[in-house]
Write a structure and sequence with these properties.
It is built from 11 helices and 8 strands. It is of the alpha/beta class. Helix 8 links the parallel strand 4 and strand 5.
Length: 271
Amino acid sequence: MSDGQSWIPQSVDVSVPSAARVYDYLLGGAHNFAVDRLMGDKAEEMMPNSRNAARLNRAFLRRAVRFMTDQGVRQFLDIGSGIPTVANVHEVAQDEAPECRVVYVDRDPVAVAHGELIIAGNDRVGVLQADMRDPESILASGEVNRLLDFDQPIGLLMLFMVHWVPDEADPQGLLKRYREALPSGSYLAISHMAGDHVNEDARSVTDRMSKSGGGDVTYRDRAELESFFGDFELVEPGLVKFAEWRPTGPGDISDDPAVNKIAFAGVGRKP
C-alpha cells in the first residue's frame, strides 16, 4: 500500500513504528508503513520465528472465536485488536453466525482509522480508540454499549496483550475489572508470551517494540497466567501452549517445535 494515503490521521508520526502495524505486516496484511516493515524484518532477522508466532496467535484467535460461537456467544469485545485484517474476529464470527456483533478496541489511531475503513457498511461492528489499561473508558463507551448487551454472554479477547502490562501496572486488578463486567456464560480468551521459553533474541526484539511505544513486555509463567482467569472455568485443554489449544489442522501448528511453545493460550468461562 502507499504510505501517503489521505486517511492517515494528521497526529500520527508515520516515521515511528507501531506494534499494531508491525503485527499486521508479520501476518501478511497490507495496513503498514515502510518503518513498520523495517521493524518486522528486523524482528524476523533476530527471532526467525516471529512470523510463525504471529500466524499461530491468529490461528488461536480463529479457533477461540469459533468455539465461542459454537457455545452460543453472539457478541465479542476484542481489546488490543490491532488492525482487524487477515481473518479478523467479525469475519470469523459472522461466518458462523451472521448476527454476531463485534467491537474492536486499540489505542493506535492508525489501527483505528484502518479498522473504520475495513468495517464500513457493517453496522454490527464497531471500532473504539482506547487503552486497555483504562477499562472504565472502554466499558462505558458509547460504541461498546451500542453494540454489546451486558445482560447476555460476551466473548472477551485479549490476545498478545497482557504481556505488555508490567506488574507495577497491576494486571491482576485490570483483568479482575474486565471479568467482573462480564455476565454469566461469558468467555475470556488470553494468549501471552511464555516465560519458560524466552531467550535473549526474543527479549531483544520485544525490547525494541517496547521502545517504539508498544509498552513493556513481561514474560510470565503458567501459574501466574492461570490467575488472570480468576474464578472463570478453563475449558479443555486448559491453559496450554498456543499451538496445543484445540488445533484443527496443519495451519494451526508450526513445523518448528520451538515456535509452538512461544506463548500460552487458554479460554475460560464465567460461571
